[in-house]
Amino acid sequence: MSSSYTVVNPATEEDVTEVEMSDLAMTDALIAKAADAYPAWRDVAPGERARLLRRFAAVVDEHIEELAELEVRNSGHTWGNATWEAGNVRDVLHYYSAAPERLTGHQIPVAGGINMTFHEPLGVVGIIVPWNFPMPIAGWGFAPALAAGNTVVLKPAELTPLTAIRLGELGLEAGLPEGVLTVIPGKGSIVGERFVTHPAVRKVCFTGSTDVGKKIMAGCAEQVKRVTLELGGKSANIVFADADIAKAAAAAPGAVFDNAGQDCCARSRILVERSAYDEFVSLLEPAVKGVRVLDPADRSSEMGPLISATQRSTVQGYVEGTEVAFSGSAPNGPGFWFAPTVVLADDPQQPVWREEIFGPVVAVMPFDDEAQAVQLANDTEFGLSGSIYTRDVGRALRVSRAVEAGNLSVNSHASVRYWTPFGGFKQSGLGRELGPDAPHSFTDVKNIFISHD
Ligand code: NAD
Question: How much of the chain exceeds pLDDT 70, in percent?
Fold first, then answer.
């Protein structure tokens, strides 16, 4: 039996719409349709597949405002973020639309004939998306997967299905054949698990929590199913005393409070060299108080609400019993609001320091030297991203190489560009998305020898 889910606006707590959730039978039928669509899509000439993806990008571009408005209402993302996110889907489609004609193999010298390799598509790819970045994470999966000749089934998070559903419609409008990109809203325990167990789904691309990611990896092992995991994070922002402290303090709130801290790359641990600690904390306070936490539909809003009442009480739980140094503001009244909060930490075992909070809470701790900074930064099961603020080029290089994380930035917090690889070390993930190599991770290499004789 299928059921429906009421989508709620997190900024107002008002119902937005009802979405039908697929049951197992519907999921199986849609996976079968994607499997049926695969041979013809695989055989579309590279230049034609490229043209269809470019057209898909153009149609997304024509609907940026509509997609952004949907995301503001469904996810509480600020207007600025939501328009960036819709534009990111367009750009990722554009970028990978150049891949079909460039998916070249090797010709390798051998005796008695020729040897060549092909990057063969896998078949149906299942993409499972979390609620924090519904549009970009969908696009990071489907654009390179489609470019490489796979068909895609995509499950959005229960809380945030609206933009994914619309992107599926826009794909059809752009001319993608039926069954090539199919959005299947539903529960993780039904639709998501079926991607793992269904033999026609040949790869699962999962972004979400580390606990669910481990289950998916174990499930995929049953069929030696390909899997990419993008999981949690607890990234460090390391500020050395030789850095531009004013610049580091001004940039720190954006690095953790963007998307209300519901960001796997959030720099939620700030490590500050002891001699600069007081100056940094005193400069951080006005920067945090200046964050404009407003109705996300207000074009000047810099931070919106959390996604749900449950998420708000989880975040609140991390702050209780800690030493709150200061906090910013948040609207009163309806909505799942939480003010940006700065906690002073002195024990690396504190949950606020160790666990991914996924809310606007940052913990600050002093360190004494470079070795201790690296040790504290690496004292976590995660390894997604991080930042290093210093004017010393040698130190920037040493520390960037020593921090165990997949995406680091020096004197900056930028960690996502669609044309550079993105992914985690340790329990933050497995495999990489984006960048020039992503289409390869949606293929298997085939080696063929042809004898001269
Ligand atoms: P989640 O793990 O609860 O859910 C993610 C998705 O998996 C949802 O679509 C959910 O329905 C589905 N799911 C749940 N149980 C499943 C199961 N048993 N089998 C198959 N699918 C299942 O995560 P969330 O709360 O939606 O998202 C927050 C998490 O995502 C955070 O830990 C965050 O760090 C992580 N995240 C990571 C990245 C990254 O790129 N590394 C990016 C964004 C979010």
Answer: 100
Cβ-based neighbours of 215, under 8 Å, separated by 6 or more: none
CA 425 to centroid of ligand 1, rounded, Å: 17
How many separate domains does the chain show? 2
Examine the residue annotation and report whether 205 is marked as an active-site residue of this protein.
no
CATH number at 134 reads 3.40.605.10
Task: Give the nearest ligand 1 atom to 129 CA.
Answer: 9
Residue 364: domain span: 236-416
Ligand 1 centroid–CA 139 distance in Å is 16
| Contact criterion met (CB below 8 Å) for 164 and 141 | no
Please state the φ and ψ torsions of residue 177, each to the nearest 5 degrees.
-65, 155
Do 140 and 210 sit in the same domain of this protein?
Answer: yes
Is position 62 within any domain?
A: yes
**What pTM value is reported for the model?**
0.97
pLDDT in tens, 190-231: 999 999 999 999 999 999 999 999 999 999 999 999 999 999
**Residues 160, 67: Cα–Cα separation, whole Å:** 12
Pocket of ligand 1 (CB under 6 A): 128-133, 137, 155, 157-158, 188-189, 192-193, 207-209, 212, 215-216, 230-233, 264, 356, 358, 384, 424, 428-429
Q: Which atom of ligand 1 is nearest to 211's Cα?
A: 2
Asked if 265 is an active-site residue, the reply is: no
Which among 193, 230, 302, 433 is annotated as catalytic? 230
Strands 124-128 and 201-207, by their bridges, are parallel
> Which helix H or strand E contains 358, and what residues bound it?
none
- Do 150 and 225 share a domain, yes or no? yes
Residue 100 within any structural domain of the chain: yes
Could you please report the per-residue DSSP string of 418-446? TTS-B--SGGGEES-BSSTTGGGGGEEEE
DSSP string spanning 199-242?
A: TTEEEEEEES-HHHHHHHHHHHHTTT-EEEEE-----EEEE-TT
Do 248 and 350 share a domain, yes or no?
yes
Residue with tokens 């999962």: 206
Domain match, 138 and 285 both: no
